[in-house]
From TrEMBL:
Pathway: Amino-acid biosynthesis; L-arginine biosynthesis; N(2)-acetyl-L-ornithine from L-glutamate: step 4/4. Pyridoxal 5'-phosphate binds at residues 96-97, 129, 215-218, 273. This is Acetylornithine aminotransferase. One of its GO terms (biological process) is L-arginine biosynthetic process.
Length: 392
């Protein structure tokens, strides 16, 4: 008989009843070190007092009105995002893949309004992940995601990751509306796009007018040690998808764009019942107030250096288990030589949560405010997990 919950996840036999900082607690009191952060969501760990206070204060006042009315919490959060980024305007959604939907619609509408509706193709890259909606899976384009769900949303063209010549060629096509990519591929195995490539892509977009859509759902919100990952390359996108970390665990997504890219969108063209509701935006404001400060981000960079150095040592100590470390900031991947799933299981054996990804990689996406002690404890536990995998 089918379980009451649709069985589409391969769940670990764990469940947690509470959390504090970088720790998760099971009903029997067993404590796990959380290095997955709910897949890059819990940027301030569990039960952060400022987020709990923001949520409970709002909960006692007003949960939901509607986008029929002004939502002051939404306006405040949008202003913060506009002030801190390239963006001129923000749309709020509830998840990452919803921001992909609007990114695609906005790019197509832009060209439509410019009288060039034939410019509707979105270029995307192999190994990418943009969520599970119809536009998200069409953008990623992998057989694993689209298989059986056809007909796939048309108008996407896929390019091999890291092939600048193929990209330059593809950009010349007269039907290209936009390019979508993650500055650091997350699900794909923590694969950063080199700064040079992002710069080159920006130049190509400037030459052709195509819109540059960055998916910072996983790598944004301080994860790499800058508020957004593209800042490392010194370029700005036209449209950017944000979710995961921005709500710190409360469902929230945001689509940021320039005035130019948003120019086709008119009242009635898009919407969301819950998007940017008072509860979500109360938490989003509290997250931004902490994360979007230079003191916080420089601490992320320092902690990332500590963690990464330790992981390099771990790889050196276990050359049969690990191949290499890659990533940016506290978005770290360990490419494995043994099956990555075995490493995840071995970490569970050490009461530690890590996250599998493609390319036989495991991901470390800890809370951005993880303590130095917890980083050192993580390294000890990963060391024991790796040791438990080496055949005697
Ligand atoms: C998680 C993720 C998404 C999808 O976000 P959901 O909130 O699960 O819809 C999209 N893009 C990237 C890069 C992601 O990591």
């Amino acid at each position: 008989m089918i379980p009451a919950v649709l069985p589409i996840y391969n769940r670990a036999p764990l469940s947690f009843v509470s959390g504090e900082g970088s720790w998760l607690v099971e009903a029997d009191g067993r404590r796990f070190l959380d290095l997955g952060g709910g897949i890059a969501v819990n940027v301030l760990g569990h039960a952060h007092p400022a987020l709990t206070a923001a949520l409970t204060a709002q909960a006692g006042q007003l949960w939901h009105t509607s986008n029929l009315y002004h939502v002051p919490q939404q306006e405040a959060l949008a202003e913060k995002l506009v002030e801190q980024t390239f963006a001129d305007t923000v749309f709020f959604a509830n998840s990452g893949t919803e921001t992909c939907e609007l990114a695609v619609k906005m790019a197509r509408k832009y060209w439509h309004e410019k009288g060039q509706p034939e410019r509707h193709v979105i270029l995307a890259f192999t190994g990418s992940f943009h969520g599970r909606s119809s536009a998200g899976i069409a953008a990623a384009g992998s057989e694993k995601m689209i298989g059986g769900f056809g007909p796939v949303l048309p108008g996407f063209r896929h390019l091999p990751f890291g092939d600048h010549d193929a990209l330059a060629q593809a950009m010349k096509a007269p039907d290209v509306a936009a390019v979508i990519l993650e500055p650091v591929q997350g699900e794909g195995g923590i694969v950063p796009v080199p700064d040079q490539c992002l710069k080159g892509l920006r130049d190509l977009c400037d030459d052709t007018g195509a819109l540059m859509i960055l998916d910072e759902v996983q790598c944004g919100m301080g994860r790499t040690g800058k508020l957004f990952a593209h800042e490392w390359a010194g370029v700005t996108p036209d449209i950017m998808m944000v979710a995961k970390g921005i709500g710190g665990g409360f469902p929230l997504g945001a689509l940021l764009s320039t005035e130019r890219a948003a120019s086709g969108m008119k009242p009635g063209n898009h919407g969301s019942t819950y998007g940017g509701n008072p509860l979500a935006c109360a938490v989003g404001n509290a997250v931004m107030d902490i994360v979007a400060t230079e003191d916080f981000l420089s601490e992320v960079r320092r902690k990332a250096g500590l963690f990464r150095q330790g992981l390099e040592g771990l790889v050196a100590a276990h050359p049969d288990v690990f191949d290499l470390v890659r990533g940016s900031g506290l978005m770290l991947g360990l490419k494995c030589k043994v099956p990555a799933g075995d490493v995840v299981q071995a970490a569970y054996g050490q009461d530690t949560c890590i996250v599998p990804a493609a390319d036989n990689t495991v991901r470390l996406l800890p809370a951005l405010n993880i303590s130095d002690d917890d980083i050192r404890e993580a390294l000890r536990r990963l060391d024991r997990a790796a040791a438990s995998l080496v055949p005697a």
